Structure formats: structure tokens, C-alpha cells
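Limitations
The C-alpha cells in this dataset are predictions for the assembled complex, not deposited experimental models. Users should treat interface geometry with appropriate caution, especially where small molecules or nucleic acid strands are included. An illustrative entry is reproduced here so readers can see what is and is not provided.
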Amino acid sequence: MLFKGKVSLITGGSRGVGKAISTKLADEGADVIINYFRKKSTAQETAREIEKKGVRVHLIKANLAEADKIDEMFAEINKEFGRLDILINNAASGVARPALELDDRGWDWTMDVNAKAVLLCSQRATKLMKNGGKIVNISSLGSHLVMPVYTAVGVSKAALEALTKYLAIELAQLGISVNAVSASAVLTDALKIYASAQGLGDSVYQTTPAGRMVTPEDIADVVAFLCSEQSYMIRGQIIVVDGGYSVSPESAMKVDK
Amino acid sequence: MSVEETVREIVTRIVRRPASEFAKETTFKDMGADSLDIVQILSAVEDKYDIELEDDALTDIKDMAGFVAYIERCISENGK
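Predicted assembly:
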């Protein structure tokens, strides 16, 4: 087991990609702290599933758009575990509007959850990573590829990716590795909601040269690698998990119905 | 503080409108609440009462009186 005895925090860890990451880290022996925003019953169900693997699971409800809630979350982690080895900044939200229709509150909300919270969580996690640690931030191709109504989220992910590089260099001296995983559209409930709300239909279900969509488990496998010592020399990198989608203009234009 | 008073405080704070504009028959639309406001209102109410509100339930709720009644039902069910 890669992470036996390690303590991990996965923000937004109860559903979708976050749940797959929580599950993968638990499979490898890590205790998991799952932060969630609203759906307590979903978080409790995820916790019950993961506890069966014989690891400790701890749920913390916190709105990461609020700095004081982040402080409370880390105070609770310190009280319950006294340390942290792995932080996965996975939680994301966003207002889906074209650039000209974005207002300041929608912009601030998206940036607060997707970018500022990554900084605040990383700062607080660093204090608990007494023997070094691993930080992995979850991004998306929208940081540099334009997608419908994805303006605020795309820009927030670009900020997250730049922050990943700055943190990687600054935290290297503390024995902490920082990287990001960026994915094309991942088959989750969030994607279905995004597609439905925007009337995008099946167009979000992208074909990739690898022959299928990216799954949450694909992301979780790469995150686990970045949390392992095998990736020790990888620092400040954005690892793209997209089945080759972003390097193939032909596949990016093709829609699999 | 009653549930209605608490909801009024939360809604008016988040949509940044005076409490005088909040009445039983006021709708979220009347208050100028967009989808982000509604997520934040639901989250704040959930935190306050340690309950879980269903997003879908809001489609059947016409006004603040209905919203308050729904919250009271959830609090009551949570206490059972």
C-alpha cells in the first residue's frame, strides 16, 4: 500500500472526481478527510463506502468560498489528526456565463472557490505537513481551451495552474511536492448538469483519440501517482489526462453522439 | 429568533436588499436572486439548522412563506 499511515484531505471529495480520488487514496491505505459543501447525505454514503476499506474517514462540511470556514476546517483537522500528508484541491464551482454577461459576484464566487481556496488550503495544509507532503490541484482544459460559457471557470483554472507552479517552487524546500492534473470533460453528474443547463446536449461527450471519455478513476490513478514517491522529481507540472484530446485538433472538433 | 426572521436575515444579506422588501408573498425573483444567490441562501440555511435542502424542492416553492414552511418541515424531520 502506497499511503498506509498517511492522512489525506480531499476538498469536494464526496462526489464525482473527488469521490474517485478519496476512494483511490483509501485503497492505498490513506486515512481520508472528505470536505463537502452541501450534500451531507451523499457525503455520509461515500464515507460509509470508504470506511469498509479499513481506513479512518472524517467528514467536514465547509464552504471554501469563505476564508473563516477554511480556518475552521484546518483547526478541526489539527484537532482530530494533528497532521496532514496529502492535500487534494479538487473542489470546484462556477457561474456559467459568456464573458459579457458575467457580473462581479459570479466572477468572485468562481475565483474564490477554484483559485483562492487553493492558496488558502495550501497555506494551512503546509503548517500540518510536518514531514513533507504532497499537494495535487485539479484543473481542466478550460484553462487554455475555450469552451461554451466556461469563462469564469476557465480563468480560475488558469490561476490554479499558475499557482501550482509558484507553490511547487516555494514549498520544495519544505519537502512538499505540488502538481496539478488537468482533464478534458470527465463523465460525472456535474458534466450532465452543465450540459443540460447550457442546452449543449451530447456535444460535451467528447471523443478522445484513446477511444472513450475520461473517467473519474483515470484522474484518481494519476493523482495517486503524484502523491507517491515515484513522482518525487515531478514538480510544478500540469499533467493532462485527456486521452490525447488536446493535442489533436481533429478529435477536438469531432462530436461523439 | 424564528425561522422566518432567520431566513429574512439570510436572504436580505445575500441578495443585498433591505429587510423591508422581504414579505411572505415575496418571490426569489422579486428579491432579484439569481442562481448563485440561491445556492448561497440554501447553504447558509443548511449551516444554520444542520439540515439538507433539496434543490429540486425550490421549483415548487412560490414565495418566502413557502420557503420558510419547507425549512420548518426539514427541521422537524431532522429532529425525529
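Some entries come with short summary sentences. For this one: The interface with chain B takes residues 37-41, 61, 63, 95, 105-106, 109 of chain A (CB under 8 Å).
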